[in-house]
Amino acid sequence: MSTSVTNPIKKRLKKTILCYTLLTVFFFAGSRIYEHFSFGETSAFMHYLFLIPLIGGTLLVALQLFVKGLSRLSLNLWNSGVATLTAGALYRGIVNLSGRSTTMDQPYYYVGFAFLALALISLFFVRSIWVEKIT
């Protein structure tokens, strides 16, 4: 008979930190490369695109440290919110760099913030079974 000594809460926290760090670096480098080849056009949405996963990941890590036993539902809703906000900013940045303007990105922000709000609301109703025992 064997028992696992890995702590799933710490494992999830490390995975969250790694994923959001890689996403931030990817969007930082990708937006700079895309702007470099945009023939002098600039877009604040594209330039600061990396801040969305950076801030979202930082808040999620803080949330995981503060709320022990963060549920999978809360985590998925939070990740969906950050992904939707990032997609909206990316869409707006690409359209702005092409020399046009649009308001078609607004639904992305409404849905993204709705996901984030649902994630925060779900903290009060759902708990994970991976709660550390206090000894």
Architecture blueprint of SSEs:
Elements: H1 8-36, H2 44-47, H3 51-66, H4 72-97, H5 106-122
Helix pairs in contact: 1-3, 3-4, 4-5
Number of strands: 0
Described by the principal axes of the CA atoms, the overall outline is elongated
Number of helices: 5
* Class per helix and strand makeup: mainly alpha
Strand content: under 5%
| H/E topology pattern | HHHHH
Give the integer mean of the pLDDT values: 85
Helicity level, as a percent range? 55-70%
State the end-to-end CA separation: 24 Å
**What is the C-alpha radius of gyration, as a whole number of Å?**
18 Å
Please give a quick description of this structure.
With about 140 residues, this protein is mainly alpha-helical. The chain has helices at about 10-35, 45, 50-65, 70-95, 105-120. Helices cover about 70% and strands about 0% of the residues.
